Amino acid sequence: MAGSLSHGRARSGAVTPKAARDFILANTALMAPPHVPEIKLHLADEAHDLWHKTEEELAAIGLPPPYWAFAWAGGQGLARYVLDQPQTVRNKYVLDFASGSGLVAIAAAKAGAREVVAADIDPFCRMAVELNSRANGLRLGFSGVDRIGTDDGWDVVLAGDVFYDKPLADRLGPWFAALRQRGATVLVGDPGRAYLPKGGLEALAVYEVAVTRALEDSEVKRTTVWRFA
């Protein structure tokens, strides 16, 4: 891996902004996700050591799994939908939950959202979103706290590829349902993850999203954009 984070840590153990910025720039390249070529992101690929690191190796240097370094199928599908259907977010207050790289948040901003907040508890995501939004000529809000169970009055909540983990899915279901009940639009991009709810969803669009076998079990993932009904 290109450099260590150990010298960039504050005394509290948190990664400093400079260390996060340097690490991201050293381990990624600016490129366009295949399904959303309008957007440029700092992503890892086969040319970067980060691509080949296991979660155990990353944990050894204090780095959470770098979900921010990859354009996951669910996020690509949801971003594509938002760009193709801009009325979904135009002039609205939008939360991009579990934002990662900020791909979906950037798509919402490009589609005309009044305000976009990218939310993710991974401390590296704050810098990833900042770098990626700047690369697209944008500035986005960011929240680094756990937003599950909260409600800041968002008109639209977007979530790409979040139903991969059962404990997380068990928390998301009631929260999304509560947001929907009070009038928010909740959209999820999902490539067939195991813990997607079995009911209460309306399919809005389906995409065949190119991904990599290093991350997924196939080179193309059939990805559906769902609305919580």
Give a short summary of the structure:
This protein has six helices and nine strands, in the order H-E-E-H-H-E-H-E-H-E-E-H-E-E-E. By secondary structure, the chain is of the alpha/beta class.
Give the SSE layout.
Elements lengths: L16 H11 L1 E3 L9 E3 L11 H6 L12 H12 L8 E5 L5 H8 L4 E5 L3 H13 L5 E3 L12 E5 L5 H16 L3 E6 L10 E10 L9 E9 L1
Parallel strand pairs: 3-4, 3-6, 4-5, 6-7
Antiparallel strand pairs: 1-2, 7-9, 8-9
Helix pairs in contact: 1-5, 3-4
Main beta sheet: 7 strands, mixed
Q: Share of helix among residues?
A: 25-40%
E-strand count? 9
Number of helices: 6
| SSE order | HEEHHEHEHEEHEEE
Strand content: 15-25%
Question: Top keywords for this entry?
Answer:
229 residues, alpha/beta, seven-stranded mixed sheet, two-stranded antiparallel ribbon, disordered N terminus
Explained architecture:
- This protein is α/β, with parallel strands linked by helices.
- Helices cover 29% and strands 21% of the residues.
- It contains six helices and nine strands, in the order H-E-E-H-H-E-H-E-H-E-E-H-E-E-E.
- The strands form two sheets. It has a seven-stranded mixed β-sheet, with helices on both faces.
- Helix 6 links the parallel strand 6 and strand 7.
- The N and C termini lie far apart (44 Å).
